[in-house]
Protein: Alpha/beta fold hydrolase
Amino acid sequence: MDVARTPDEQFADLPGFPFAPHYAEVVAEDLEPVRMHYLDEGPADGPVVLLLHGQPTWSYLYRKVIPVLVEAGLRAIAPDLIGFGRSDKPTDHTDYTVARHVGWVQSLVTGLDLTDVTLVAQDWGGPIGLSVLAAEPDRFARVVAANTILHTADPALADRLTWAVNGTGESRVVLEEALVDYLLYTQRAPVLVPSLFVGAATTNPLEPAVLAAYDAPFPDRRLTAGLRQMTALLPLTRNDVGARLGRRTMRALEQLEKPFLTCYSDGDPATRGWETVFVERVPGAQGQPHRTIAGAGHFLQEDAGEELGRTVAAFVTGG
Structure:
């Protein structure tokens, strides 16, 4: 396996990001170990909050959330998925699978021996993190689902989601056109620039230096295999291996009694509807103080990071 690393100088003096890097070797399936970067802020003996990002971001996304959690006495751990941020980047796109992303994060959780974990998952952080929870349920105490989904292509999702992704009949699917357009663009564009997507999916304009920070991990095309492949891994049919994994994870969630909070924005059509699905299907979601954050887009950490942080802190501490 050929692995590349983004030069450290790409991460110098990023705005609002004073956090020290940490690294751990992680493994998945039949691949050799790779190095995963993570942030580790707050008291070492504090309750752990695991902050998972998705596509096309990295732990920089949580820079406004982390100080709020630390002030509440919590230990915030925010990894960069393999292929993103300061983590290793296999250069062959076929090295990336949904199962391997799950395995890499699971390896981090077990390698650091994290327990009593509160999972905060946004975008692909949901399908990955919730599958880790399904595999390691005793390590997790609660969940905050924030603008995320599960990839299932379940026919029962018909007319439940703003962005349709569901089977219909015996062998057909219904797909949101914008989702297909996004997938095709990421596979066909000669150059992928994360800041274009981040800037388009927030309600508040971002400063040029902030947008540049999202592009920092990818100074050349050799480093973008994981960035590009993650979109190609989107399960669009019931037969996709990722959809089978998603359905298995959903079955585990349907037995989950641990507290499960939804915290979605009101400006994210890509995930709209899933907050209701989770509340209906996850026993631990019953009676929780679910939140809708007004005036925020898909990347609610950018538009309302402090508010998300306060919501998570109150959920963990009972405040």
About this structure: The chain has one domain: 3-317. The mean pLDDT is 97.
